[in-house]
Amino acid sequence: MTHALQALLEAAKRAKPTAAQREEQRRSFAYGNTHFENKLITREMVDRQAEKLAAGKTREPK
Known about the structure:
Layout: H1 3-14, H2 19-37, H3 43-54
């Protein structure tokens, strides 16, 4: 392994993602796993549900 690659790996170990980056990663993970099982799932659907969860709304109104 080159010295430059080793330095990049060490820097990556110390990097702390922001809250926005963690949220983006969480949504990407949710989309990837759900879309794999159901091709009708879209990123927009995941975003809508994430916003509802963030607002404390977990159910659709009756």
